[in-house]
Design goal:
The chain has 9 helices and 32 strands. The chain is α/β, with parallel strands linked by helices.
C-alpha cells in the first residue's frame, strides 16, 4: 500500500428498527463489546489520518463509545449519500482517499480494506472503488456491472434489473474508497428522484462514469460483509466471531475440549497449554496464564488466573478475582474482588468476597466471607497456611493470622492471632435415651389419632 493519506467515514446513524430495541443498532454487542468497537479496532490498523463517525441526533451512547474519534450528526436520515454529506465539514481540507464503511458491518477485515485502498491508488486512478462480493443467494442486492477490463460501469438495484443483470452474482456491499478530491463534487450531483426520496451513495458511480472517470471493484468474502439488521443477523455474526476466537485460541496453544460450547469475549487471553472444558463462558477482561485447567460449566469475568491454577467445575469468578499460581478453585465456589494466592485451595461450596486468601491456605466447604453489612463492604484477610474449617462464617472486617485454624461451624468476628485455634461452637450436650422415648411417645400419639378417626 502507498503512503497516501486516508480518511474514514463510518456510517452509524441507522436506527435498526428490525432489532426492536431502544439501543442504537451499532451498540449491540458481539463477543462482549459493541459491534462498532470491533469495526473501529480494525480500521485503526489502517492508520488513517482522520476518522469520523456519522450518528443520529439521539445517539450519545455511540459518541461516547467511539471517542476520541469525532462524530457528526445526520439530522435527517435521507440515505447513504446524505449521511456522507454530513461529514463534509470534517473533510473540508482533506485531499487524500476517503473510505466509507458501515457501522453495522463489523466483521470487515483490514486485508480487504487495504486492497480497496491499493486499488484506489493504482495506475488506473479510479475515482471510486466499490467493494463487491458474491453471495450464495444474491436476492435483493444491487448488481455490479463491469466491462471486459474489469472496470465498474454501473450499480443496478435488483428491483430495476433485467434478467441478464439479475444473472450477475457480483453484488454491491456499499463499502467504497473514493478520491477525496472528487467525493463531494460527485455527491453534490446526486438527486433524490426515487421512491424513498433519498440520496444514494451508489449513484456517484454513474455520475463518475458519465464524467469519463474510471471506477473499479475489489471483491471481499460474503462472511466478512454480513450486515447486521436483525437479532438473527446478530446471532449469525456472533457465531462466526466465536468460531474465529476459538480457532485463534487453539492456534495459540490452548486446548478446548469441546470448542463449540466455549464462549469468548473479544479480549480473552489464554496461555499456552491451558485446557478449557465444555460450557465455559469468558466475560470481558479475562487473562489466563500457562498450564491452567478450567473445568466445565465455569463463568469468568474481569479475572486474572496465574499459571498452573485449576478452576471448577461450576465455579464463578467475578470482577476483581485474582487467582495465584497453582491455586485450586473448586466446584460451586464464587470469588469476587478477592485474591487467592499461590497454592491456596478453595475447593467446595464457598463464597470469598472482598478478601485475601494467603498462599497455601485451605478454605473448607461452606465457608463464607460476610463482607456486606447492608451499608458497607469490608475486607477479610486469611493468612498464609491458615486452615478455615467447614461452614465457617468470617464476619468482616476480620483477620485470620498465618497458620491459624478455625473450627468447623464457627462464626469469627474478631481477629485470630497466627497459629491459633478459634472456636465459637456451642458445648456438646447429651440426653441419654431421649431419642427412643421421643419416638415411642410420638408413635403412641399417632396411633391414638388414627384409632379416633375409626
Amino acid at each position: 500500500m502507498t503512503n497516501s493519506k486516508t480518511a474514514i467515514v463510518v456510517l452509524g446513524a441507522g436506527l435498526g428498527t428490525r432489532m426492536e430495541s431502544d439501543l442504537p443498532k451499532v451498540m449491540h454487542p458481539l463477543a462482549g463489546r459493541p459491534m462498532i468497537r470491533h469495526l473501529i479496532e480494525t480500521l485503526e490498523t489502517l492508520q488513517p489520518t482522520r476518522m469520523t463517525i456519522v450518528v443520529g441526533g439521539d445517539m450519545e451512547t455511540v459518541a461516547r463509545e467511539v471517542a476520541p474519534y469525532p462524530t457528526v450528526v445526520q439530522k435527517d436520515r435521507l440515505g447513504t449519500g446524505h449521511a456522507v454529506m454530513a461529514a463534509r465539514e470534517a473533510l473540508a481540507d482533506f485531499e487524500g482517499d476517503v473510505l466509507v464503511v458501515y457501522g453495522d458491518t463489523p466483521l470487515l477485515s483490514a486485508e480487504t480494506l487495504g486492497r480497496m485502498l491499493d486499488a484506489r491508488r493504482s495506475a488506473d486512478n479510479p475515482a471510486v472503488v466499490v467493494l463487491g462480493f458474491r453471495p450464495e443467494h444474491p436476492g435483493a442486492y444491487g448488481r455490479l456491472m463491469v466491462d471486459g477490463e474489469g472496470h465498474l460501469q454501473a450499480i443496478v438495484e435488483a428491483k430495476d434489473a433485467g434478467p441478464e443483470q439479475l444473472a450477475v452474482n457480483l453484488c454491491n456491499s456499499g463499502v467504497m474508497a473514493v478520491d477525496g478530491r472528487k467525493l463531494f463534487d460527485l455527491l453534490d450531483r446526486v438527486g433524490n428522484d426515487n421512491a424513498k426520496g433519498e440520496y444514494y451513495l451508489t449513484d456517484i458511480v454513474e455520475i463518475a462514469c458519465a464524467d469519463g472517470l474510471t471506477c473499479g471493484v475489489v471483491e471481499g468474502g460474503e462472511a466478512e460483509l454480513l450486515g447486521i439488521n436483525s437479532r438473527a443477523d446478530l446471532a449469525q455474526a456472533e457465531t462466526m466471531l466465536q468460531d474465529d476466537l476459538r480457532a485463534s485460541a487453539m492456534a495459540e496453544g490452548a486446548t478446548l475440549v469441546d470448542p463449540s460450547t466455549v464462549f469468548f469475549s473479544a479480549d480473552t487471553k489464554l496461555g499456552r497449554d491451558t485446557t478449557v472444558g465444555p460450557y465455559v463462558v469468558f466475560g470481558s477482561g479475562v487473562t489466563v496464564g500457562d498450564n491452567v485447567t478450567i473445568l466445565p460449566f465455569c463463568h469468568l469475568q474481569d479475572v486474572t488466573i496465574e499459571q498452573g491454577a485449576s478452576v471448577g467445575p461450576y465455579a464463578r469468578l467475578r470482577p476483581g478475582a485474582r487467582i495465584g499460581a497453582d491455586a485450586h478453585i473448586g466446584n460451586f465456589v464464587e470469588i469476587k474482588n478477592a485474591s487467592v494466592e499461590a497454592g491456596a485451595k478453595v475447593n467446595h461450596l464457598t463464597y470469598i468476597g472482598d478478601a485475601r486468601v494467603g498462599a497455601k491456605a485451605n478454605v473448607g466447604a461452606g465457608t463464607i466471607t460476610c463482607n456486606y453489612d447492608g451499608f458497607f463492604k469490608d475486607h477479610t484477610d486469611i493468612g498464609a497456611g491458615a486452615f478455615i474449617g467447614s461452614n465457617t462464617s468470617l464476619v468482616a472486617p476480620v483477620k485470620v493470622g498465618d497458620g491459624a485454624i478455625t473450627g468447623a461451624g464457627s462464626v469469627i468476628v474478631r481477629d485470630i492471632p497466627a497459629d491459633s485455634l478459634a472456636l465459637t461452637r456451642g458445648p456438646h450436650r447429651e440426653n441419654a435415651d431421649w431419642a427412643r422415648k421421643f419416638r415411642e411417645r410420638r408413635g403412641r400419639e399417632k396411633a391414638a389419632k388414627a384409632e379416633k378417626k375409626e
